[in-house]
Amino acid sequence: MPPEDLSQHPVGYIPESPEDNTEWITYRTWIEGLSQHTMNSWLRSADIGQTIQEAWIVQNAVVYVLNHNQHLITAGRQRELVGALYHLLGIIKAMGHSGDLALLATLCSTLARGLITTWIPAPTPEKSRRHTRSNPLHTPLDPEAASEVRTAVEVCEFALNLTDGTVPVSTLQQLIATWAKAKQLLRQQVGPRLGTDEQSANESIDSVTGVLVALEMHSCNGLGLMDFTVPPLAQLVKMALECSWSDPLVELQTLTRLAHFTYVARDHEATMACSQKAIQMGIEHLQAFSPVEAELVAEMLSTAACIQGRSIMDNLKGRKQLRLTAAKAFVESARFGGIAGSSALVMQAARHFWNTWLPLLSSAVNRKKCKSATQEVISVINKTEARKQEKGKTLLLHQWPTADFQSGGTTEGCFLSGAEDDLTLRAALYGLLFHSHADQHDWEGCLKVLDEALQVLPRTAHRLLIFKHMVMVKARLGQNFVMEIQRFKDQSEEYLAHMWRRLALNSTSVPGELTCYLHAIQALQKPESEWQKVDYIMEFSEWLYHNQFPLEDVVFHLEWAIDILLRMRPDRGSPEPAAAGAAGAGAAEEQVSTPAAPEGPGAEGSGPPSLEKLRNVRQLETLARAYTLLALVVTPSAASHQDYCLMAYTFLCRIWQVSLLTAGKSISESRIPAAASSHSLLLQKEKEKSKDREKDKDRDKDKGRASKQFQSPTPGKRLEDVPASIEEWASYACPEEAISVFKQDQSNFAVNRSTLQKPTYSLYYLDHLVEALQKVFLHELTIPVLQLEVLIAASVVDSKSLKDLYHLRLALVCSDLKLREAATFHEEVGGHAYICDVEQVSCRKEIALKKEKNKEPLLEESLPTLREPLTPAQQAEMKPLVAKDKTLKINGETGRGLDGMSFPQLWTLKAEVLLEMDLYQPARLLLSEAYLAFQELDDPCAESKCLHLLARLANKEKKYGQARKMAERAQHLGGSEQFWYDSTLTLADTLLSTENERREAVVCQLFQKLIDTFNVLKKERPNRMPILEFMTTDLEARCVSLQIKAAQEPEDSEPFQNSLLLMEMDDRLLEIEEKFTNIGHNEKCVDIKLERAKMKRLSAQNEKDAEQKTACYLEAYDLVQRAAAEEEELFHRIQGLLSLQGLQHVSTPLVRRLAHLKLSLVEVCLDMLQLMWEETLERQLEQRSVDKLLADYLQSPSDYTSVGLKWFTLKRTLAHTVLAQLGSLQPLCTGCVELRAQLLGLAGKALHLLAVHADPLRPAFYWEESLLGGAELSSRECLESIQEDEDRKGSYGGLLALRATPEGHSRKGWDLKRRMALAQRYLAQASEVLLQCLQVALGSNLLDIAAAASLEMVECVGTLDPAATCQFLALSQSCSASEGMRDVLLTATADTSSSQLAALLQLRHRLRRQERTSTNLFASVEQRLAAISKAWQNLWVTEQHFNFLSEIPPTFRILFLHHSRDRTHLYGAAYEKPKFIPAAKGKLLQVGGSCKVARMAVSPAAFSSLLASAQQFREHAQAEAHSEKGSEGAPLRGEEHAVQRLAEVVKPMEEYLRPLFSLLSCPPEARAPIPTVVADLGKYKGKDKEREESLPQVQPEVADNVILIADRHLLELPLEGLSVFDDEMVSSVSREFSLQMLWNRLYRKETEGNVKKESRGKDHRKRGIAKKGAKRVVSRITPPHCIAVDADNFRFVVDPYEEARGPEMLTPVSVTREILERFRDTFTARWAGHLGKKQFPSQAEWEQLLGSCGGFFFYGMESFLSHILVERLAAMNLEECQMVVLLDLARSCESMQRHVESSQNKSAPRLSLEGPVETAVLLSLVGVRSIVANQWPTVLRDNATRASILWEDLLTAGKPIGRTTRLLQKRGTGETVHHDEALQTWKDRLVLFQPQPQGSERLPVTLNLVLYGLPHQAIV
Q1: In a 3-state reduction of DSSP, which class is residue 1702?
Q2: Alpha-carbon distance 1709 to 1728, whole Å?
Q3: Which of 1504, 1634, 1542, 1560 is nearest to 1904 (CA)?
């Protein structure tokens, strides 16, 4: 062979063929001649040796010939030596081998190979062999070939037969291999003995020879020739392992070959055994071999290790650690290949190594794990490639095709991506090593790896990957990469721009990033690269913004991108209606697919096209995104901010138009050919479909009701018609046909995958656009945008869960706009399964895969190691957490739906919307699942957001402790600026809801800390300055508000100090207002103005100086007026933008905000108007008429100060201002019932004020007249007649006398008449408006508005119609009482987890505060409350309230005491129902009945003092109850002090209420005897006696049961102690909260009438006494019309802790036991309950006792509600419990300690529920008819007295509960209380403990026990 040319040649050099080189031919001929001459000489010497019979000469000749031709033998050219070798073999046969059998075997093997090599067929390709069977009947050899092959067999057998064990195994192996191949060619099988001579008698066959023969047979099989019948491999492996091998090299080769064959046979265990044995033995003997043999050993070791690794890979079965074991084997194979110097073996091992690690390389942990192994493999490859290869020095065992590993085993196409060729593999390995260093941020190490790769890899295209990595690394290190980037100059500009962008993303310096971005943009110059250029410019703009470049640069680049987009050439083939059928489908597709090119600068019409010409959806969407970015980066105060939002909205609407037009065109074209072909099919399937329809009808019935009206197209509208109004948009649902078209469409004129290539990215910016539109009060415009998001989610992303998110957002927006039907539709479409199993499974699967990738696997032999702690240097290098917004990701495998890792983010977004909708349970489920997922994903920012939302949820549920912990944990994790602002506000709400006294100060410190942080950020982030400035200013405003609130709380602070503080706060608010104005947040300025106006009004109330007070009122008016004017200006500006949107039935947040501002302005004006007119009236009353005339005459405008002049001017215009504002409010109240009710209420108040001002008589005249003379009615007819008389000759009737006056007074009289007529007209209008207000308010349960309107009606009607006034007063009192009782119920149910009622009540309360009363959620909550809660039912006040007074029992006298809201007036009313007695001819004569009303002016300070004295009395009583020692004199002395203190409360109370005594006292006709009805004597003279017998005298029922309906605060006073109730006609005084509650107690839905109950009670009473057989007959007379309470159905709980301390006979247990024993035979035998702590009741037993009884008796220490869970009591229904007797409020040391311990975990509002009045409120709400309870703390002695007397009167005497309680209240007043003898003797034991009454003073013990509810219940 010619020598290799290693010299360098120029490019284009073509090497010369050796056959054409004459010098080479001459040289070759000369060498061949010399070789032939030498061969001839050696053959001649052999002949001579034979001749002279010298064997050594022959042997030497053979050796010389073999050695000289070794190169031919190694090259497989033995055929050239056949003649010479055959000649030498003949000589040896003739002379003998002389004992040198090895030489003979070598000679025979070489000769035989020369004979058979020519006749061995070419190898069959591997692929064809897989599908064809081996053919033993192949074409036979021709005679010549058969002869030579047969000769070869004979030669081999000759040598084999002579071997006797002295031949080296290696030589024997060569001979056996040749013999086996020759046998195969001759189609001769080898016998089972594996011998060479089947007929030989010698059966001792060497096992080594047998193994070698079997191996050669396996090697020959499967090649398309005859297959040997071979022994099993397992047997062969066993034989090989048991053999005693003399040559380790052959043994190693045998084991390696066996490993190969067992691997091919898929015998994993045998493969592992052979390979392991081979590797172990080879390593042991490797050092002992010569260098040549060592290389051979290394080759075999490399092969064995590779086979072992491949076998492990084939048997992984999902065990990751085995994969690592296989990789380790491949590393060993590469290492041994490197020792052998075999590049093929090394690359083969490297390929397997790469393929083994490839599935794990996506994990940084796994890349770190394989780093060292990769370095070793690369090192071996480089060393092997650098080493000079020496070929052909070793004789191969097989020089023909074989199934052995030497020529097979690595089949084509078995390697995965990255290993197609050696250079690709080496580049990939360097890339892997680079990423391993990059994962650890070892950029210096990365650079070293890449430098090494560039040095060792040849200059091919494979180095581009290395250059790409090197450029990125140098960019990160800040080094110069200009040379490296030049390597990409031959690539396309898109690729080059992509590289520059990647450099920008990897650069660590801002200048470097800037340069790279600019190069990336400049690289794109071709028209077809414009889309990529626009994307890069927009990305660059975002980068400029976030890196605090000037906003002008950001806006410039965004406008540049917009200019490129607008100048793109419009696509042809757009879907215009006129060109619908102009071209075929193919032409249309061709036109659509043409890339858009920009118009040239000189092109015709080079300006931006009009909106109608823009039809490319991708172009429109990118434009919308660009304008959205502009809106986000500019200052909100900038004028362009709103314009950018509107431009983005316009382009999105254009997308709707183009897309629907495309869908309509596509559907219309598809229907034309489909109509004809489907006609016949429809007829055939009509019957089948009819059956399916009927099945679907029932299933879709409910769903269709809600969605039918929205999903069905509007009549007269086509599919391509876009909704024309906001209401149509809100109820719009894109047809399924259109969505199907969009999913299949590929054009540029619809919403599809080609136009929205990054749909989630587009949705991200659409979300921001929605937020921006809402911030500029364009809520209406968000609906089309959200509808587009629904369309993208359905047709492009194809994710139902994502579509449901936007339906929920649509429902929320529609709810804010009061579009209830649309909101309902979107809620139902979104469904109630907010998280599905598929999402959870997908998310958990992705998390598990990620964890598996990041998990560090352990090899089987490795030991677990501890994780090394981070060094301080590493900790310093860790970057701080940066919060960035994340977009959802599409599923990469399917291209549809969301990726599993995006579901937690989607759940968080859904939960945020659900929280806004107050759907707590699904929000909690979503947030819990998302939080767990984010924890697994190690995403701190997402975790913090979840925790913040959970804190908000806990706040809404009033779980403030939990909310605080979550908010603090969220802030510990950190987040963005917005997150810190929101989480701080949430934490502040939580802290303010606690009972910490310094909570305002703590929150202010929290705010100030965040303000300081934001102030630092302002300097670092100038582009975020407007947002940060708004946040800091808002926090400052909140701090001031909290300080104002804290300053107003102390009631004992001096007014002067408050005034100074308010002035200081006002100055700070003014500064804050200026800041808000500067940053463009005028809506906040409005709030600040309202806050300042409120402070001005407070200052005016505290101001003493008249001038300063007037100035404060003027400033307050000016502030509110300016606030309303600014808001109205904003409203008109927004309306101007939305004038064509059809907003007639839409109530936006801006409209409602403006309405509230106008209402506030009207309230301020009305208060000022009332103040002005009152001052004028007072001044007129103080001055005499002459003085008045003189003052009016002399008054001049110049006499006023500036403040006085303003006040004077305002007086003239204020009324007109009020009427104007009320008129403008009417259209603003559309869709909002509460606003309409407030408007009507204020309108009625304004008209009433105008009527009062116009009336010539002062307003108080009528009320004063009623107090002096009274206005009493005996009947309704009397009422009407008196009213008519008053109309004719009442107060105004006296003015008629003016007609008779002299002519000088006629003008004055005419003026008075005009004023009277005007006043009456105003009064009539006010009444009408107020009645409308009541109708609206009561219909919507707006009790606060109804209460105010009712009280205003009381003022309007006054004493002109006492009955009507009484009705409205009762209604106002009922509404106010229901509001107060609702607050008590809300306090009792503050723990939302305690019951369903608590959760629903708190949810309703929150919805009401948020003005979300028009939502479905609010309606469903109220419906559910009405179904489950008795307490809620009792709170309702409806229009039926006007019928209640006519339905009360005739024995009731109803007294009303009701304060005005400011407590400046006290209203009173007394009502008795008329009675009817029989008269002649069956007629009924009406007698009795009265209705009186009164109003008196009172002092709020006096009433506050009265309440304070009552509270002080209770505190003293509490102290005495605790300090009682039980001595004899102490009770008497304590009683004297108590009497004195009670008198200090009763006397001021008497003075306070004395003006109403005439109203509260019983009417005189109640005392007068009713006259007997006498017949007419002239007509019935003869029947006098008969008439006297037939018409007996009937006494009417006396209204002796006083029901005192008073306000909540009045009930704190001992009203029963009023002297007006000491009248003998008063048999009972019971308290009531409202007329509504009284009626609820009287009439129940499921109870029988009074008469029926009464009769049943009487029968039961008589039957019970007879049956029980008392020891003595008890005379019980139960008054008529009493409600019977079954005595057998009483339950009791008495001192469950046994905490009473004192004499045994006074303890509750002892007293109760005696009562039970005393009345056991008559009444108490069936009483059940818990007496003492031996039968301590659980909470469930408490509920069972209360819920199953007709009467309940509690007798114990502390308050009743301290023993039972209040929240559980509030949720109960105690309708069956008619009577509750509470003898509580006693105290001992033990009970006080228990109460203090239990109170530590209770809030102050919760503890306030344990008060006596609150306890009565709760028991009344849950359905109890009568409650007897103590008013203030007491002692055991007094409770024992009450218990004995109370039960004696109730059980023995059968007295009603009201009369019994009243008898107890009268004790101590000098009256005699009669009891029977038995009772007196039973009470003798209490004489020592009962203080004796002194004089007529009322004892505190007598007034302590009061009755709430019905007084006419009696125990039977």
Answers
A1: coil
A2: 14
A3: 1542
What distance in Å separates the CA atoms of residue 496 and residue 521, rounded to the nearest whole number?
10
pLDDT of residue 1753: 96
DSSP class of 1755: E
Pairing mode, if any, of strands 1751-1757 and 1826-1830? unpaired
Residues 6+ apart with CB under 8 A from 695: none
DSSP class of 659:
H
Closest CA to 635 of 561, 560, 559, 554: 554
Spatial distance between the Cα atoms of 401 and 393, rounded to a whole number of angstroms = 20
Could you tell me if 1467 and 1493 are in contact, meaning their C-beta atoms sit under 8 angstroms apart?
yes
Angstrom CA distances, 36 to 58, 59, 81, 1728, stand at 18, 19, 11, 134
Which residue from 826, 725, 817 is spatially nearest to 777, judged by alpha carbons? 817
Q: What are the two backbone dihedrals, phi and then psi, of residue 283, each rounded to the nearest 5 degrees?
A: -65, -35
> How far apart are the C-alpha atoms of 1327 and 274, rounded to whole Å?
109
Q: What residues form DSSP beta bridges with 1465?
A: 1497
22 CB-near residues (< 8 Å, 6+ apart): none
HSE-CB for 455 with a 13 A CA cutoff: 9
pLDDT digits (tens, 9 = 90+) for 1550-1583: 999 999 998 888 765 544 443 333 333 334 344 4
Query: Residue 989: what residue type?
Result: D
User: Tokens standing for 1284?
Assistant: 């008519």
Query: Cβ distance 184 to 138 under 8 Å?
Result: no
C-alpha separations of 600 from 376, 488, 536 in Å: 58, 29, 21
Range in 361-375, 688-702, 1071-1085 the model is least confident about? 688-702
The closest of 1859, 1861, 1853 to 1902, measured between CA atoms, is 1861
Packed helices 1149-1182 and 1106-1137: angle between N→C axes, nearest 10 degrees: 150
Tell me the whole-structure pTM to 2 decimals: 0.81
- Closest of 1473, 1476, 1470 to residue 1447, by C-alpha: 1473
pLDDT score at 704: 45
**CA–CA dist 120, 181 (Å, integer):** 9
pLDDT at 152: 80
221 in Cβ contact with 227 (< 8 Å): yes
Smallest CA-to-CA distance from 1072 within 1044, 1046, 1092, 1095 is with 1092
The residue among 1685, 1697, 1611, 1608 whose CA lies nearest residue 1654 is 1685
CA 325 to chain centre: 46
* Beta pairing class for 1779-1786 and 1826-1830: parallel
What is the rounded distance in angstroms from the CA atom of residue 274 to the CA atom of residue 276?
Answer: 5
Burial environment of residue 1551 by CB neighbours within 10 A (0 to 12, 13 to 18, 19 or more): exposed
Q: What is the pLDDT at residue 7?
A: 66
Concatenated DSSP letters of 1129-1176: HHHHHHHHHTTTS--TT---HHHHHHHHHHHHHHHHHHHHHHHHHHHH
- Backbone dihedral angles phi then psi of residue 120, each to the nearest 5 degrees: -80, 125
- The number of beta carbons lying within 10 Å of the beta carbon of residue 95 is 17
Output Rg (C-alpha) for the chain, integer angstroms.
Answer: 53
The tokens 């869970």 sit on which residue?
A: 1765
Integer Cα distance of 1777 and 1821 in angstroms: 12
Tokens 């059928």, located at residue: 581
Length of the chain (residues): 1916
Q: Provide the H-helix boundaries in 878-1021.
A: 903-916, 920-937, 940-956, 960-973, 977-992, 999-1020
Measured distance between the N- and C-terminal CA atoms of the chain, rounded to whole angstroms:
134
Residue with tokens 């006709």: 1565
Integer CA distances (angstroms), 989 to 62, 959, 970, 992, 1398, in order: 107, 12, 15, 5, 21
Which residues are bridge partners to 1753 per DSSP?
1692, 1781
Strands 1465-1472 and 1490-1497 come out as antiparallel
Distance CA 304, CA 310 (A): 10
